[in-house]
């Protein structure tokens, strides 16, 4: 079994600062502890962006510090709250692919995982640049006979809620490239702070709620109110020759715990 843990939307802030009343560093430490305790068999962990709420170097240094406790290998891409240059200064230029973005390909146990950096400086919506789509096309072609999972920060498929205002703006172009490969097992995103699954244009898409908070968003592009009410959540991706399965592990502030057997 190929097993991956995906954390997203950590939104680390400066020391002593809370975000929506939450200590996001403590929440990340809980996520790292949950992986070490329950998913230590994972081949690796992926961070799917929005690592630092304001993209500052102090937050990236704290991220590095928290991740030092992680017991599995780590791979990272960034989101709209991140600052690409500052991230690369703190973590190292080797985190950028030859696209200039924080893209990465990981091959493990006969399957391929591709991380894409969908952040666009100065805006909350996402985009994949032509150089990245070309790079993706090449990475897919060279792995035409193995299952592929793609992980990026922004959702590409319309979710029919307000978050579509900050969607990946060239989703159809992205899907056209994905469809050149016939074993795209999952496309996994964070960004929207809630859980969804979809089949869009023949490709399976998933979002996870991430580590900051989980929102309840009523359906409809203008519907209110948005409630910030749920747990911290990671995705655990289990993949073998037959299927790719996404579990959701609510590792902090999960709902009511019922008494077993009662
Ligand atoms: Fe985001």
TrEMBL record:
The lineage of its organism: Bacteria, Pseudomonadati, Pseudomonadota, Alphaproteobacteria, Rhodobacterales. This is Calcineurin-like phosphoesterase. Keywords: Hydrolase, Iron, Metal-binding. Belongs to the cyclic nucleotide phosphodiesterase class-III family. Residues 5-193 form the Calcineurin-like phosphoesterase domain. It comes from the Bacteria. GO terms for molecular function: cyclic-nucleotide phosphodiesterase activity; metal ion binding. It holds the Pfam family Metallophos. CDD domains: MPP_GpdQ (cd07402). It comes from Antarctobacter heliothermus. InterPro entries: Calcineurin-like_PHP, CNP_phosphodiesterase-III, GpdQ/CpdA-like, Metallo-depent_PP-like.
């Amino acid at each position: 079994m190929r097993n991956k843990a995906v954390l997203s939307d950590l939104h680390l802030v400066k020391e002593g600062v809370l975000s929506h009343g939450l200590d996001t560093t403590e929440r990340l430490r809980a996520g790292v502890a949950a992986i070490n305790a329950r998913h230590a068999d994972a081949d690796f962990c992926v961070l799917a962006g929005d690592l630092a709420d304001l993209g500052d170097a102090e937050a990236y240094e704290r991220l590095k510090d928290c991740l030092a406790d992680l017991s599995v290998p780590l791979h990272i891409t960034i989101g709209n709250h991140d600052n690409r240059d500052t991230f690369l200064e703190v973590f190292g230029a080797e985190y950028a692919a030859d696209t200039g973005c924080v893209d990465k390909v990981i091959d493990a146990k006969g399957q391929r995982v591709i991380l894409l950096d969908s952040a666009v400086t100065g805006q909350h919506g996402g985009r994949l640049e032509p150089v990245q789509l070309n790079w993706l096309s090449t990475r897919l072609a060279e792995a035409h006979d193995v299952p592929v999972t793609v992980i990026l920060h922004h959702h590409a498929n319309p979710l029919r809620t307000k978050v579509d205002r900050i969607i990946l703006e060239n989703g159809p172009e992205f899907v056209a490239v994905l469809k050149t490969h016939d074993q795209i097992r999952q496309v996994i995103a964070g960004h929207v702070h809630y859980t969804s699954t979809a089949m869009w244009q023949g490709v399976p898409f998933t979002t996870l709620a991430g580590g900051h908070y989980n929102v309840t968003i009523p359906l409809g592009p203008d519907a209110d109110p948005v409630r910030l009410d749920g747990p911290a959540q990671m995705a655990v991706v289990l993949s073998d020759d037959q299927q790719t399965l996404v579990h959701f592990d609510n590792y902090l502030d999960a709902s009511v715990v019922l008494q077993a057997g009662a």
